[in-house]
C-alpha cells in the first residue's frame, strides 16, 4: 500500500497546483476585498464497515494526518455508537489504530451495511485529503472533492477538471479523469467530485516508457472554465513528479515488435514504489515479467514468446472483449483481475507509444 499512498499524495499536490494556477490566471473579483475564487479540497471521513481492514487502516491514518487533535470514531445511526478514539500524539497510536480497525471489522458480520465516521471535539465530521475507496494489487480507486466558491461578478461556466498520467518526455499522455462540465453562479459554491482509478500496471509501463537516465512518473491536472457570459476563459495546467530520485544507474530499453525489455542494474528503492521481488502478469498471449531485487536489479520484460507482435496480441484480446489479466507475485498463487475497457485500451496505447518512441 505504500506505493498507493505515495501516488495519492502526488495526486493531491498536483490538484492543488492546478487549482492555484487557475486562481492566478486572471479572474476579476466582484468585491475587490475578496479572493475571486476560493477552494477547498477534501472528502468527509465516512467509511463503510465492509471495507477491507487494510483500506480502513490506510484511510484512518490519512485522516489523522489531515487533521489536528484527537478524533473520535463513531458508528452512524440514531443514536451514534462510540467505537474508539485516535490520538496521533499518543505513544500507543498504532495500538489504538489496530484496535479501532478490529472493532469496525467486527460489524461486517452483524451489520454489514453500517458506516463509521470520524468527528472532532465539536462532534463535526472531519475531512481528509483523499479517501481510498478500494484497492488491490493492480488498481487503486481514490475519491476527493474540490469545493469552489465563486466571488466573481458573473457565473463561472463549463468548469472542467482533467487528470492525466504522463511520462517524463511527454510521449505518453492519457486522461484518467474528466469531470462533467459544471456551472457555479456568482456568489455560489459547488463541490466537484474527483473520482478515479489508477492502474498500477499502466503506471509502471508509463514510468518505464519515457526513461533516459531516471525513472519518474508525472501526473498533470487541467482546470478550465469560462466567465463574463462565456466570452472570457481561464485555463491552467500543472504537473507534479513521483520520483525514484536522481542517483539511479542508467536505464536501458530494447524494443522489438514482439518483445520490450527495460533494465536497470540496481534494485529500485522501495521508498519510491513498493514493488515485489518478482511478478509475472499474463494477458492472453502476452507476458509481462517484472523483477526488482539486489541480485538482478530492476527489469520489465513484455513478450509474446512468438512472432506475433505485442500490439496485435493485445488488440486481438481487446476485440474479443476479454480484459482479464492473471498476476503471480513472488511465486505465490495466481490471481485474476479484470481491467476495465478504458484501462485496457490505455495499456495498448502506452505500448504503441513505446514502439513509436524507439522507431
SSE sequence, one letter per element? HEEEHEEHHEEEEEEEEHEEEEEEEHEEH
* Sequence stretches where pLDDT stays below 50 over 5 or more residues: none
The total beta strand count reads 22
Secondary-structure arrangement, i.e. CATH architecture of the largest domain: Sandwich
Please name the CATH topology of the largest domain: Immunoglobulin-like
Mean pLDDT across all amino acids: 83
| C-alpha geometry | globular
Head-to-tail CA distance between termini? 36 Å
Strand order of the largest sheet: 16-17-20-19-18-21-22
CATH top level class name of the largest domain: Mainly Beta
Structural class: alpha+beta
Strand content: 35-45%
Helix proportion range: 25-40%
Radius of gyration: 23 Å
Number of domains: 3
Q: If helices are DSSP runs of H or I spanning 4 or more residues, what is the number of helices?
A: 7
Largest β sheet strand count, sense and barrel closure: 7 strands, antiparallel
Write out the CATH superfamily name of the largest domain. Answer: Immunoglobulins
How do you describe this structure in short?
This protein is of the alpha+beta class and 359 residues long. Helices cover 26% and strands 40% of the residues.
Amino acid at each position: 500500500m505504500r506505493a498507493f499512498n505515495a501516488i495519492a499524495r502526488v495526486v493531491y499536490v498536483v490538484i492543488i497546483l492546478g487549482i492555484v494556477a487557475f486562481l492566478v490566471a486572471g479572474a476579476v473579483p466582484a468585491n475587490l476585498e475578496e479572493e475571486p475564487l476560493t477552494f477547498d479540497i477534501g472528502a468527509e471521513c465516512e467509511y463503510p464497515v465492509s471495507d477491507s481492514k487494510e483500506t480502513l487502516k490506510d484511510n484512518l491514518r490519512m485522516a489523522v494526518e489531515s487533521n489536528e487533535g484527537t478524533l473520535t470514531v463513531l458508528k452512524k445511526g440514531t443514536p451514534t455508537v462510540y467505537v474508539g478514539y485516535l490520538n496521533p500524539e499518543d505513544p500507543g497510536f498504532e495500538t489504538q489504530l489496530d484496535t479501532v480497525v478490529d472493532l469496525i471489522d467486527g460489524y461486517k458480520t452483524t451489520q454489514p451495511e453500517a458506516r463509521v465516521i470520524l468527528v472532532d471535539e465539536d462532534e463535526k465530521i472531519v475531512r481528509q485529503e483523499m479517501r481510498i475507496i478500494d484497492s488491490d494489487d493492480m488498481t487503486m480507486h481514490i475519491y476527493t472533492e474540490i469545493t469552489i466558491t465563486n466571488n466573481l461578478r458573473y457565473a463561472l461556466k463549463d468548469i472542467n477538471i482533467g487528470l492525466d498520467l504522463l511520462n517524463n518526455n511527454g510521449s505518453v499522455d492519457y486522461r484518467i479523469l474528466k469531470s462533467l462540465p459544471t456551472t457555479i453562479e456568482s456568489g455560489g459554491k459547488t463541490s466537484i467530485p474527483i473520482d478515479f482509478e489508477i492502474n498500477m500496471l499502466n503506471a509502471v509501463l508509463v514510468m518505464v516508457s519515457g526513461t533516459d537516465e531516471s525513472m519518474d512518473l508525472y501526473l498533470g491536472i487541467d482546470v478550465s472554465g469560462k466567465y463574463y457570459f462565456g466570452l472570457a476563459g481561464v485555463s491552467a495546467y500543472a504537473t507534479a513528479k513521483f520520483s525514484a530520485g536522481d542517483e539511479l544507474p542508467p536505464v536501458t530499453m530494447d524494443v522489438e515488435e514482439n518483445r520490450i525489455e527495460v533494465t536497470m542494474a540496481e534494485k529500485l528503492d522501495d521508498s519510491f514504489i513498493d514493488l515485489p521481488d518478482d511478478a509475472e502478469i499474463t494477458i492472453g498471449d502476452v507476458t509481462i515479467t517484472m523483477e526488482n531485487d539486489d541480485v538482478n536489479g530492476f527489469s520489465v520484460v513484455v513478450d509474446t514468446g512468438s512472432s506475433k507482435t505485442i500490439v496485435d496480441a493485445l488488440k486481438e484480446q481487446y476485440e474479443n472483449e476479454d480484459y482479464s489479466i492473471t498476476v503471480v507475485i513472488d511465486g505465490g498463487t495466481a490471481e485474476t483481475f479484470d481491467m476495465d475497457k478504458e484501462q485496457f485500451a490505455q495499456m495498448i496505447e502506452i505500448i504503441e507509444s513505446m514502439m513509436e518512441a524507439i522507431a
